[in-house]
Design brief:
By secondary structure, the protein is an all-alpha fold. The longest helix is centred in the middle third of the chain and has 40 residues.
Length: 289
């Protein structure tokens, strides 16, 4: 059986996710354990990897950027473009710890899928299971399959783990994105981050709300909890009033009709459903996220 050959764009895409996962994990762990100026470099490397990987996907999906209405409308509604623009924004902004969480989570799934579908078959060709032999013409049973090798077992474990944890990870990311919005909003009020950050991120969340059921569930759940908390007798009236005014503004903004015709592939940023279900790793030409 011929060894799989990864194209150059696919390798660049995978390298970007490896960078994001390793640097993002190092930044997150380092932030909890100690404070160091070097953490800023890990933050930058994590977003460099995100820009590279998303840039490959967007280029393969849309080609050379064009300055015309049709191209811009189609690109604006593509989730990979949205995550690319957001990665660029965070890359050039002052580091905010929690913003790295979604990208690191997405990259974990892509790294695992790339290892299973590309690295293991290339390094261990024998790990790819051979087709079962059919029973003989005289009805004799086909020979028993040989025990799976360690690489084959590792590949199967990765496939099962990705499939089992895909939905929980997407829910985790959705709640993380709700927390990011709260962080940049409070940060703007306290002058901890740019006043532009909550406006930019609100637009991103609005698009995610329309395109992701996980995001809708997260916002609905958090909204219900806040409604319950602010209607409690112990809640000061001024807090309830501010909350009602804030949610009214957000609801008006979010209810604006979006045109989703020509929308790109769903579930940006996460492992592709095919990968989660044991399919081939997304090639750079069609990789989602």
């Amino acid at each position: 059986m011929a060894r799989p050959v990864a194209s150059t764009p696919h390798l660049v895409w995978a390298a970007g996710h490896f960078l994001t996962f390793i640097a993002g994990l190092r930044f997150l762990i380092g932030t909890f354990l100690f404070s160091s100026a070097a953490l800023g470099r890990w933050y930058s490397v994590a977003y460099l990897g995100a820009v590279v990987s998303y840039g490959v996907v967007v280029y393969k999906s849309f080609g050379v950027p064009q300055v015309n209405k049709a191209y811009l409308q189609r690109a604006a509604m593509d989730e990979n473009v949205q995550y690319l623009l957001l990665a660029l924004y965070w890359w050039f902004s002052k580091p905010i710890f929690i913003t790295v969480v979604p990208y690191t989570t997405f990259s974990l799934f892509h790294v695992l899928t790339f290892v299973r579908t590309t690295i293991i078959p290339m390094a261990f060709p024998s790990a790819t299971p051979a087709p079962r032999a059919a029973a003989g013409a005289d009805g004799a049973a086909a020979p028993a399959a040989a025990p799976a090798s360690a690489p084959a077992r590792a590949s199967k474990f990765i496939q099962s783990w990705v499939k089992a944890n895909y939905d929980p990870a997407m829910r985790f990311v959705a709640y993380a994105e709700v927390a990011i919005f709260a962080r940049v909003l409070i940060g703007a009020l306290l002058l901890r981050n740019s006043l532009l950050a909550p406006l930019f991120y609100a637009h991103f969340c609005r698009l995610r709300f329309y395109m992701s059921s996980f995001t809708r569930e997260a916002f609905s759940h958090v909204g219900a909890k806040l409604d319950e908390a602010t209607t409690h007798n112990a809640c000061p009236p001024v807090v309830r009033k501010a909350y009602v005014m804030g949610t009214d503004v957000i609801s008006r903004y979010a209810s604006t009709v979006l045109s989703v015709q020509g929308q790109g592939a769903p579930a940006a940023g996460a492992a592709a459903p095919a990968a989660a279900n044991g399919g081939a790793a997304p090639a750079a030409a069609g990789a989602r996220r």
